[in-house]
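[job 4471] stage=fold_predict status=RUNNING
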Amino acid sequence: MSRHSDDDTQQGGRGKGKAMRGRAGRMQGGRGSGRASKGAVRLWGHHAVEAALKNPDRRHRKLWATREAIANLDGELPADFTIEYAQAADLGRLVARDAPHQGLVLECDALEDVFLDDVLDGDPSRPIVVLDQVTDPHNVGAIMRSAAAFNAAAIVTQDRHAPPESGVLAKSASGALEVVPWVRVVNLARALEEMAEAGYWRIGLAGEAKATLSQAMSAGPVALVLGAEGEGMRHNITQHCDALARLPISEAMESLNVSNAAAIALYAVATRESGE
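[job 4471] inference complete, writing structure tokens
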């Protein structure tokens, strides 16, 4: 779904039950590398690829697929969209070892940059998730999935301490990479200052905090700040939080995976007004 054919795709419709179709081609290019062409990102898996194909902000380069996987996609591809049909084993050579491609591999351009100012000008009732040195793409992808589920405004990371956009991250995000804005900043502390200036109450999750998340919660705009597992937030980032809070977990468990903690915190923000 290249940029020039976005309008055709939308006009063609993506009604349920309609399978995506395109021109068949020979399987070629990228064998054995698991890497995309220069300047591109290679995505795999049903939800990740389908969401990317439906995203009008994506520039698509090439789709490799099994016929069965194409038939299971929702929507229609434009008539000039090239598909290279292949066997599942051949697709496995296009992605990382043992990656669950589910019969679909898409090569596309990385998403355009998103700026914090644009997020701060949006709906203040939607929380912002700030990640400090969370580098595992599985965790970042899972957090994006929760962010999409609980209508978060954006994910904010520091460019030097976050994973790149990738197939692993997109697969873990299960399509959320295409719908949750991902803001990558140079200075995370400065970004937190800008959030405060915009009226956001910045809550850092820390296991050693005295207050629970419900006690630290604000009725206004909220930014949830989470650090890497083990190390937690850096001191400078902690200093830029308005409150530190912990999740009230059992003493039998020392901590939660950062993606699980993010999901619980996002649920707490989503239900704070109802008292659930």
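[job 4471] summary: Residues 137-149 form the longest helix (13 residues).
[job 4471] exit 0
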